[in-house]
Structure formats: structure tokens, C-alpha cells
Design a protein that fits this description.
Blueprint: H1 2-27, H2 33-37, H3 51-82, H4 86-99, H5 103-118, H6 123-147, H7 151-159, H8 164-175, H9 177-192, H10 196-199, H11 219-227, H12 232-264
Helix pairs in contact: 1-12, 3-4, 3-6, 3-9, 3-11, 4-6, 5-6, 6-9, 7-8, 9-12, 11-12
């Protein structure tokens, strides 16, 4: 069984290495200063970059994080500390359902309730859709991390006269902080590569834009547009943009690992 488990683990890691290696082989040669600092060139012309998509991704994901992280962490704390009743069961069930909901369904929901009433596409609508995808994952991760905190810490704080809400925020949340941060980083990494919700909300924009009330480009939308286009130059830039997006997710994963080691490294 040890040999079998080791072989399966090797196959799983091999698939990831092959994907990353293929992206490096296809896209690394297209990475230069212009790629990161210039906007896309007109259709059919060589050159250009994806500066608008990089900034757009940072804005859309950043706004989604500002909306989704507090809600997700707060929901997770509620489920762990006060979620033993019927309300907690309902919230937990809805979070599990949302975790399995296809992202395109969330995009249609955001289009119906935000884009259509507003009368135009916007980066804000895209951020709301991504925040909806982020909240249930962070909530369930936070709940599991808080459950790992020993009950003796809660009892000690309550014995010293701390109210229960302050115990949850000052003692329990701080003790589980490394795990909560890890869950948040994983949630951000998950939404950073989403395309389907943004097709119905942010739409994309070939021009440089920083207004959250207007359509905005992202790396995932840029990859989709270039990969389905008819020009070889677009395909080349799509591979490079995919490599950058993969690198972003990898950096978030490494940051999550670093957060864990900062919390538990002294005991290893």
C-alpha cells in the first residue's frame, strides 16, 4: 500500500509538473518588458502586452477580496462558535451547496441582479460574482481551523471574565490565524483564474481602465479572447498570459505554505 500510495502521489505531482513545464515551454519566450507594460496591439499586428489585464485582475480580485474575506471569515467563526443550532445547519448546508455550484451559474446570477438593472457591464459586478464564489470556501475552511483550537483556551478566557464574543475574536481567531490566512489565500487563488463569471459581468476591455463601474479586462478573459482568436500572435500571448496567471496562483500557494510554517515551524 505504501508503494501504491507513493506511485499515485507521483502521478498527481507529475501532471502538475507537466502542465507547468508545457506553459513555460510555450509562453516563457514571450515574456518581456513590453508584455507587462503595454496594452494589446490592434488585431493582426505584432507586439503589445497585457498590462490592462494584469491591472484589471488585481483590481477585480482585490475588490472581491474586500467584500468576500470579511463575510467568509465571519461566517466561519459563527459556524464554529455558535453554529450548533438549526440556523448553523442551514448556513452550513447552503455553504456546501454554493461550494459545488458551477461558476457560470454565479455569473448568470450576477448578470441578472447587477448588470441588467445597472444597464451595463462593470468590474464591480465581476467582483461581486467572485466574492460569492469565495465566501463559502473561506467559511468552511475557517470553521475547520477554529475547530482545531483547544477548548481549554476558550475555558481559560471565559474563566478570566472575557465575554464569549471577545473570546472568539481575541483568543480563538488569533490562535487559528495561520489556518484562516491559508484558507483566504487558497480562496483568492481559486477565483483569480475564473473566466465564466466575468464573461457575464466584467465583459473585458481592450483599453486600460481602472474604473470599477466600467467593463474591465482580466488575465483569464484575455487568455480566453486570445486563445479563441484567429491570429498566431494572439495565441503566443495567450500562452504567456496563462504562464503569468499560473505563476500568480503558485505564488499564492507558496504564501499559504509560508503562513503555515510561520505558525508551526518552531515545532517541526
Amino acid at each position: 500500500m505504501t508503494t501504491l500510495v507513493g506511485l499515485l502521489s507521483f502521478l498527481a505531482v507529475l501532471a502538475l509538473v507537466l502542465i507547468l513545464g508545457y506553459l513555460v515551454a510555450k509562453g516563457a519566450s514571450s515574456l518581456d518588458w513590453n508584455f507587462f507594460t503595454k496594452n494589446p496591439a490592434p488585431a493582426g499586428q505584432a507586439g503589445g502586452g497585457v498590462a490592462n489585464a494584469i491591472i484589471g485582475t488585481a483590481i477585480i480580485v482585490g475588490v472581491a477580496g474586500l467584500m468576500g474575506l470579511p463575510v467568509g471569515i465571519g461566517t466561519g467563526l459563527f459556524l464554529a462558535e455558535y453554529g450548533s443550532g438549526r440556523l448553523g445547519w442551514i448556513v452550513r448546508f447552503l455553504a456546501d451547496v454554493l461550494n459545488g455550484t458551477p461558476s457560470i451559474v454565479v455569473g448568470i446570477f450576477a448578470w441578472t441582479w447587477l448588470v441588467k438593472p445597472m444597464g451595463h457591464f462593470s468590474a464591480l459586478a465581476g467582483s461581486v460574482a467572485l466574492a460569492i464564489l469565495m465566501v463559502p470556501m473561506i467559511a468552511r475552511t475557517t470553521e475547520e481551523m477554529v475547530h482545531l483550537v483547544p477548548h481549554s483556551l476558550r475555558e481559560a478566557a471565559l474563566a478570566l471574565g472575557y465575554p464569549r464574543w471577545r473570546t472568539s475574536l481575541r483568543i480563538v481567531a488569533r490562535t487559528a490565524l495561520a489556518g484562516i490566512v491559508t484558507g483566504c489565500l487558497v480562496g483568492v487563488a481559486r477565483i483569480a483564474g475564473e473566466t465564466a463569471p466575468l464573461l457575464f459581468t466584467a465583459l473585458g476591455n481592450l483599453n486600460f481602465s481602472t474604473s470599477v463601474n466600467q467593463p474591465m479586462q482580466s488575465l483569464s478573459l484575455q487568455i480566453y479572447a486570445y486563445a479563441t482568436g484567429p491570429f498566431a500572435e494572439w495565441h503566443r500571448l495567450a500562452w504567456a498570459a496563462a504562464l503569468v496567471l499560473m505563476g500568480l496562483v503558485l505564488l499564492l500557494g507558496l504564501a499559504a505554505r509560508w503562513a503555515i510554517r510561520q505558525r508551526h515551524g518552531a515545532t517541526r
